[in-house]
Every structure is written in C-alpha cells, then in structure tokens.
Amino acid sequence: MKIEKFELPLIEEFLAYLLMERTLSENTVEAYRYDLCRMEAFFNQHRVMSLTDIVPSLLSEYVRVLFDVGFAASSIQRNVSSLKSYFAFAVSEGEVDKDPSELVESPRNTRYLPAVLSVQEVEQVLEGVDIRKRGGIRDRAMLETLYATGMRVSELGSFSMEQLLEEERFVRIFGKGSKERIVPIGEIALHWIKQYIEYERHLFATPLSGSTIFLNVRGKQLSRMGLWKIITCHSRNAGIEKEVSPHTFRHSFATHLLEGGADLRTVQEMLGHANIVTTEIYTHVDREYLREVHRSFHPREKQQQQQQQQH
Hints:
CATH architecture of the largest domain: Orthogonal Bundle
CATH superfamily of the largest domain: Intergrase catalytic core
Largest sheet: 3 strands, antiparallel
Number of strands: 3
CATH class of the largest domain: Mainly Alpha
Oligomer: single chain
Number of domains: 2
Strand order of the largest sheet: 1-2-3
C-alpha cells in the first residue's frame, strides 16, 4: 500500500505574500522555500497527514535536529522564522485554527552551537595548504576528506585502505558503537587521497603502519590532538578568525549540503548520528540516490562540474 505524501498547503501563496506584501528579496524568499521543503520532508518522516497533526513538540524536535546536524545559529534562526511566518500565514488564511509554532523559540545563546565555516572560508583553508612542504599533500587530502564526507575526526584517524571504495566513489565509515555507514566521496577529495598515497605516504610509512591511510611522522595513526593541531594550524594560516574545532569541517559539510537544498534525512544518514540512524535503516537507502544528493548539493562537487562544463 502506497503511503500518501503530505504536502504543506499554501506554499506558493505564502511565498507570493513574502515577495509582494512583506517585500522580501527573491533570495530570501527562495531560502524560505528551501526551509519549508526541508520541514515538509521532516513531517513526512513523522507520518504527518495534515496541518492539525503538527504540534509544538514536533516543531521543537525539528529545531533540535537542525541543531544536532550542525546547522549554523543564523540558519536555525532563519528556519524558525520561516516556520513561524508560515504558520501565522496559515492561521490568517483559515487553514488551521491554532498556531503550533507560538511556543517554539529561536536559539539566543550561540555559545553551544558549532562553528561553521562559509564555503569561501573552507576553500581558503583548502587552497591555502602548502603542498610543497613535507606533509602538505597529506594535510590537503585529510581536509578534503573531512569536508567531502562529514567524517568525525576520530573516524578520519582510523580511516584505512579497505574503507576506500575508489571505483564506486564511496567510503565505509565505522562510527560510534562500531556502526557502519557508507558515504559518497567527491572527485576532488579522491584526487588528493590518490596524490598522497602515490607521492607522500611512503615518507611516513613503516612496516608497522598497516593499511591506515593518514600517518604521523612516526608512521602511526594520527591522534585526535594531532589532527586538531593540523586543522587549527591551516585554518589560522588561512586567516580564519573563527574558533575552528575538530568538528568544524563536519558541521560545515552538513550545513552546506542542507543550505544547498539536500534533504535532512539523507544528511543525517551521511553523518551517522546514533540517535537517528541505524545500520538496519541505512541498508534500505539507495546508494545511487545518496551519490546524487552529494553530487547535486556539495559545493566542491558543484564547483567540479562547472569546471568540467567549461572545458
């Protein structure tokens, strides 16, 4: 039996109202459209059938999930603004009697929200790595991998040759609780990994290095502290003034995909959050669909496609 997809009513009317009556810019209105589509997908995951099924606790859970996947504070605030404006409009149009978003609060204290780099800032860090220095290709490959896959730093440290599915353009990641997930990796990151393996890894490797890809000067797996120092060093050298933590690239990966239009559920699965995703659920996800989402919405992938089209 096919489950009927829930669609938010009055979306086009609402967007026209924002454009015509509230005189918001076209870019802002388009951002609201993305927010509503993302929210609609979330409602479908929770089997919502009509606006009357949407209760304050469900909206609060939605905001919590945005927080959990690493959305920037400003983006969460805009999402809250989007849903509040939409429900106020729905009430004014008689589509629903009571506004379920009245008690939903926008995050005021940003101290606990993860730092997120802009696309331009990420590119500054990546392009700023001096690959002529010993370890430069390794560092570039590591940073590209973090941004391409959303790996945790601990997952990057233990990343091995067996986990790299080069032909399929996927990586197998073993996360918290040894749960496995499979995530697309773009051409740019793959290119730098191959450059590192071919030209630099042997400078670090010892007979005891095994198949671990990224190695420290003693030929061992890089520690969390070692990775943190590398990431913060290159961020500082690129002139980034934000406080960059080991998870900053992971949070930026999630935010840029979501803000580009990727659906929330797919990004949650790529991140492998234990409270949302299980291996059993993941085995039912179409890998080609995951790859298409990554290809369509990841900034580095879109950039690569534009360059290929120009040639």
